[in-house]
Amino acid sequence: MNRNTRLVVLNTISFLIVLFISYASQTTLLSNITMSAVAHKHDTLFAPADYAFIIWSFIYIGCAAFIIYQWIILKNDVHQYIKRTGIWFTLSNFLNALWVYCWVHEWLGWCVLIMLLLLLSLIILTVRLRLELDDEPVRTIFFVWWPVTYCLGWILVATIACIASWLVNINWNGFGIEPNIWAVIMIAVATLIYVFLTQKRNMREAATVGIWAFVAIAVRRWSDYKEIAVAAIIGCILLLIVIARHGYKNRYYAPGNKIKRAEWK
Question: What angle do CA 25, 92, 61 make, to 5 degrees?
């Protein structure tokens, strides 16, 4: 078994482990409390409505496509995607599974550390694969760029939410600043990060995940913390403007136009 084959096998096994752990976290197989119950127990004003977490299904489908594509190109990986992926996709899967395990056991401090490592592994993977930087064919966009980019987009907002849950758990006083103001600040920070990813790394897909999260925050907080909901809506509008402007400017490289030009491979 050569190195590339070992890497793809590890990617596959680690992904299957994540799927099992994620399923088990919604039952009592891992702990006497489910993942969603822990989230409600350590609720924060930055947390989105529950429906937002169905994005994990979309992310896992993308990860499955990423792995299947690696199996397809295993014997003819001319762009060295497997080599460039290295251990980082496998590591992100193991960190994801470990985070879920710590979360259902309410080890929130460990959750923050693991989430930061997970975010770092995805950033390294983004850099190594040169995501969204080059003029690549459609199948690269679909099966290499998008799975990692959408995952990175969600883990960014999830990292902020995880840190917020931990700070609430340790009764941090927020330097005397009210929690609702901190929520608005976190939305502003997240918005700036997504704008940076769009403008400097062409990662509009990550920003669309930000919009998904902000809408869910607005839905959840509209009835009790209107200022948070308004901040989330403003964040959505700003990201929509940035995405639309960037997409129009780079419309020649849009996947739809590439498909019309038969740039599949």
Answer: 65
pLDDT in the model for residue 34: 87
Sort 37 into a burial class: Cβ within 10 Å, 0-12 / 13-18 / 19+: middle
Q: How far apart are CA 199 and CA 238, in angstroms?
A: 13
C-beta of residue 231 within 8 angstroms of C-beta of residue 188: yes
For residue 47, the enclosing domain spans 3-260
For residue 67, is it within any domain?
yes
Mean pLDDT, residues 53-58 taken together = 95
Burial 42-66, CB ≥16 within 10 A → b, else e? bebbbbbeeebeebeeebbebbeeb
Does 252 fall in a domain?
A: yes
CB 14 within 8 A of CB 67: no
On whether residue 238 sits in a domain, the answer given is yes
Q: How large is the average pLDDT for residues 161-167?
A: 95
- Read off the pLDDT of residues 84-130 as tens digits, 9 standing for 90 and up: 999 999 999 999 999 999 999 999 999 999 999 999 999 999 999 99
The answer as to whether 265 is a domain residue is: no
Query: What are the tokens at 193?
Result: 């990060």
Counting the structural domains of the chain, the total is 1
